[in-house]
Amino acid sequence: MKRPHIGSLLLGLIPFIAICLTVSLWDRIYPMVFGLPFNFFWLIGWLLLTPLCMWSAYWLEERTPASRDEGGER
Questions:
Q1: Is residue 6 situated within a structural domain?
Q2: Is residue 49 part of a domain?
Q3: Secondary structure of residue 18 in the 3-state scheme
Q4: Do 55 and 6 form a contact (C-beta atoms < 8 A)?
Q5: In degrees, to the nearest 5, what angle opens at C-alpha 25 toward C-alphas 49 and 9?
Q6: Residue 58 within a domain
Q7: Direct distance between the N- and C-terminal alpha carbons of the chain, in angstroms, rounded to an integer
Q8: 67, 2 in Cβ contact below 8 A?
Q9: Predicted structure pTM score
């Protein structure tokens, strides 16, 4: 089994950190963005950006060559 690329792991963590760990920074009703409270806008924005991050992680994994000893044990 191939070990995941560190960049792929970091790309997968970006949406998690943006949605879960930054709540205290953006949990406000005002300002309004496009008629939505900022916190709702933030969550919808990351809902749309998450597939982009996941696609980038997948692309990075597919681009990274497999190691020579992938098929057997040492």
A1: no
A2: yes
A3: helix
A4: no
A5: 40
A6: yes
A7: 13
A8: yes
A9: 0.73
CA distance 63 to 44: 30
Domain region containing 46 = 11-63
Two tokens, residue 55: 């696609």
CA–CA distance, 9 with 3 (Å, rounded to integer): 11
pLDDT tens string 18-48: 999 888 887 777 788 898 888 888 899 999 9
What's the number of domains the chain is made of? Answer: 1
* 18 Cβ contact list (under 8 Å, min separation 6): 46, 49
DSSP state of 29: S
Per-residue CA distances from 19 to 3, 24, 53 (Å)? 26, 11, 13
